[in-house]
Amino acid sequence: MAYDQSDEDEDYEIEVVEEYIGDYGSVRSIVREALPFELMATIGGVISGLILSGMSNELELIPGLIVITPAVLGMRGNISCTLGSRLGSAIHMGLITKIDRNPELVNNVSGSLLLSLIMSFILGIAGHFITIALGMQSAGALTLTLIAVLAGVSSGIILSFVAVLLALGMFRFGFDPDNVVTPAIATIGDIVSMIMLFLAAKVVLLI
């Protein structure tokens, strides 16, 4: 019987893949990789709360700002975390290997930024009318929309850059981006969004 090297190579590749998949999906691997970043996410939420507590003057001077603040944080987390997940999937499939003008990378980042712009505009308008409907004062649709767009787009640009670096960096260091990028972006996103919201409110007050 002839020796078939190809069969042996194929069996070896199957064993390697099965071993990788087993480690990839193990509880130990998931907890080991995700737990530190989940703890960071909790701490990040506390830091965001501290930043919000320091915005008392802006919240008083811009009626309706408190209404759009949770939505800005939620929108940023939803869009940026989705970007991180998509980047992780693309990296696993070999579609993205480095930072360059890769169509997959460009399309994901561009789509994320466009969503940030559209949703920030809608948020400002909705925040104004919902505030009025609830019988509360509003700084006006233009003011709230300007703040939402400035905060949403600026934080979106920063977090898109961070998401790309994290996804590629974690993969190269042997971590699964799906376990790491989403909680990390959620943490950084809350902090960055609050800072950008604070700065946007400052800019609007100066205009």
UniProtKB/TrEMBL annotation:
- What SUPFAM superfamilies does the record tag this protein with? MgtE membrane domain-like
Membrane-topology annotation of the record: Multi-pass membrane protein
Give TM segment ranges: 35-55, 113-134, 141-168, 180-205
Q: Which residues form the SLC41A/MgtE integral membrane domain?
A: 69-199
User: InterPro entries annotated for this entry?
Assistant: SLC41_membr_dom (IPR006667), SLC41_membr_dom_sf (IPR036739), SLC41A1-3 (IPR045349)
Localization, per the record, is: Membrane
Cite the entry's keywords alphabetically: Ion transport, Magnesium, Membrane, Transmembrane, Transmembrane helix, Transport
- Gene Ontology MF, one: monoatomic cation transmembrane transporter activity
Top-level taxon of origin = Archaea
A Pfam family this chain is assigned to = MgtE
Q: Name one GO cellular component term.
A: membrane
Q: Does the keyword Transmembrane helix apply?
A: yes
Belongs to which family? Belongs to the SLC41A transporter family.
This protein's name: MgtE-like transporter
- Organism this protein belongs to: Methanolobus profundi
What taxonomic lineage is listed for the species of origin?
Archaea, Methanobacteriati, Methanobacteriota, Stenosarchaea group, Methanomicrobia
